[in-house]
Amino acid sequence: MLKIDGFKPSVIDFENSITEPEASTTNEMLSSAENTTEPQNSSVMFDSLQSSYMSANLNSMLAAAPVADKLNYENLSADQKRILENSQLVVVNGTEKKVVTGKQLFDHLKQTDKKALENFIKLTNTLDSEKFTLKENGKTRTALQSIETITNFGKDTITARTTNNQRIAFDDGLNRATVFDYNRLKADEKRVLENSKLTVEVNGEKQVLSGKALFDHLADKNPKALLGFLNISAKLDSAVYTFNVEGSKKTALSYIKSVDFVDQDRFHAVVDPKLKTIIASDTRFSKAPGHGSEFPDSWKENEVAEAGGQTSFSKDGTRVDADIDQFNIKKKGGGFAKIGSVIGHTGEFLIPGKTDPYKINNILVNDQNISVSSDIYDISKPKEAEKFTQSLGE
After folding, report:
1. How far apart are CA 168 and CA 180, in angstroms?
2. Mean pLDDT (the chain, rounded)
3. Would you tell me the crossing angle of helices 78-86 and 102-112 to the nearest 10 degrees?
């Protein structure tokens, strides 16, 4: 089994803060006045001295005064406090562990991860705004009211659980919301997860998870990996990976038994060795370089220029490394599509990093008409925000 690769405002006492100016400063000011060539009215000179003196002291006090702290728990709305009360954060201090919720959680983030706390406030304020407000059956509700708890506070990504047990990942500047729902999975996807046993780290301790518990953990702690799994399983369940076997149709996904590694761009799985033989003899796939000594025998889909599936098998065919490349060098034919695929795939090798599951998802859903068991919304757009809010009530 492998591990997953994841105010109080200060009060200024103006009366006591004003101190007498130093003698040297006063003398300099008087000396300056005495040396003036033009005769001056004594009242005007005194007003000038008093104004300069007060201005200098006021500027000094303002510079020394602390800026008002906007991160004040008492300024939160009732829904924001409710969500924090329902959320838990395990604080590890050496061998000691402490679970913090509510105001303690707020204060801990304020001290240790202010950016994450600011993101929480920004996100929840947004989800409580007019753009995320629906009127249904004479009642008004906001998207924020559907959020039960925050499952991961991050600088770049915040994950949450809804009141109907959906999982949501907010990222891309908190403008993108990915909704995961275990009940929406295909039967084969549930079967694979239920048969899997992955060792993960939960609050500093190793646990073995399967089925829905594994799904929820990935959604909360590594949503990109979960989206990667759903992208690849959708591809393996699509028409190009559907075969006529002994008078019936079977998909490549139906041959996958369980997964033992999940990441945003691939998964490793235990598989029926028959799948290797089936793909090797199907003209819709072309031989490709394998993925190391563990998965030396590989075939790539050859009918699309982008988001082409690749399955790399162990020698005995009992394990598979399944992934999707954004650009498909094995695309049949020539023309600009082929040239673009070759250049793009070369770039994938030259530029470090893993394939972006959101780019793959966009191609699968919008270009290849493949259904993926997740919903992605650009919530910066009013219509998408409305659709997102509606989905939380389903």
Report:
1. 6
2. 84
3. 90
Cα distance between residue 166 and residue 118, in whole Å: 24
Helices and strands in the chain: count of H runs, count of E runs: 13, 19
Cα distances from 168 to residues 15, 69, 83, 88, 128, in angstroms, run: 53, 30, 14, 17, 16
Cα-flanking dihedrals φ and ψ of residue 250, to 5°?
Answer: -135, 145
Question: Which pLDDT value is given to residue 135?
Answer: 87
Categorise residue 296: left if φ over 0, alpha if ψ from -120 to 50, beta otherwise.
Answer: alpha
DSSP 244: E
d(CA 147, CA 132): 12
- Are 178 and 374 within 8 A, CB to CB? yes
- Residue 80 corresponds to which amino acid? Q
Give every CB contact of residue 178 below 8 A, 6+ residues apart in sequence: 168, 169, 171, 223, 227, 374, 375, 376, 377
Sign of CA dihedral 164, 259, 344, 336: negative
Question: What's the pTM value of the predicted model, to 2 decimals?
Answer: 0.79
**Does residue 29 have a pLDDT over 70?**
no
Q: Which residues pair with 100 in a beta bridge?
A: 89
Closest to 332 measured CA to CA, from 373, 283, 289, 297: 283
For residue 334, give both structure tokens.
């020539």
Q: Is the dihedral of CA 33, 37, 41, 47 positive or negative?
A: negative
* Cα–Cα distance for residue pair 351/34, rounded to 1 Å: 73
> Among the residues of 128-270, which ranges form H helices?
187-195, 211-221, 223-236
Q: What is the pLDDT of residue 56?
A: 53
**What is the spatial distance between Cα 57 and Cα 117, in angstroms, rounded to a whole number?**
36
Kind plus residue range of the DSSP H or E element containing 360: helix 357-362
Cα–Cα distance, 308 to 326 (Å, whole number): 7
Residue type, 236: L
Locate 151 and state its tokens. Answer: 């499952």
